[in-house]
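dude i think i finally got it to work??
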Amino acid sequence: MLTDIAPESLWLAALIGVLLDAWLGEPRRWHPLVGFGYIANGVEAWLNAPGIQDKPVSAMTRGAWAWAIMLVLPVLVAWALTFLPGWGGIVWQALALYAALGARSLREHVMPIAQALRNGDLAQARALTARIVSRDTEDASASDLARATVESTLENGNDAIFGALFWFAIAGAPGVVLFRLANTLDAMWGYRSDTFLYFGRPAARIDDILNWIPARLTAASYAIFGDVARAIECWRTQAGAWSSPNAGPVMAAGAGSLGVQLGGPARYHGEWEARPALGCGMAPSAQHIKAAWRLISRAMWMWLIVSGALALFAASLADAVPGGMV
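look at this
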């Protein structure tokens, strides 16, 4: 057993975590991921010695050691705290999920972009979009900004919400801590640069593995709340061409569900990158940013309702078996 908290109590903790995120958003000060990032930078500086890019095997080994150092202890602590008695375990589980979620933060970042585009304020929309994407936005058109924002919204729906909910449902606080920290390490080290090409590869691979099932469940959820047939067709025919094995299904299904055209050329650091087309239909606009967020919000509550029903079913099944075991 990863935890001695009953399924219905774990679901209650999930509900509390989601409500805390909706109420408080990300902690403004003393966010645990900020402290984790500082430590990760120190570990990387220690293990990723200058010139390591010339020794790919050694770099990958050091990257694997760095990944293990940064994850094993936090996950063990998270596991130990799940055995707190009574409400202590539930509160800890809820706080762990709350710290990993980013639903309110995502909404607070993307909705002002939609508002700026509706107001025709391109300068403000460009500045706001630059905060959430790495592509160049200095001379981006309204359609380019809407496309970048919808893409980021759909992809972060998986990374900041559904992946966390999935691993919380599977393994409680240890699962969500593992997922969020692995995702953070991938964001910090998963670059194809001289420094991180090999060193960051273990973090990127682990993140891909942890995201494989959640990404496909996210894609299916996007399909349910939009044009199902079009979402599935785009997912089936377009996702494989995308560079990320998990972002491809999420964004293709989301684009098809919304009936918009995503992907295509984008400029990064002054260089144009040819990207496959995703979705079908019209070019995205401000209204599609709002629609993408609505898609995520509805799917998130569907996940909570379904998981709650499953938890109650598991509890009733356990009560029906002598000794409370199934």
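The mean pLDDT is 90.
im so relieved honestly
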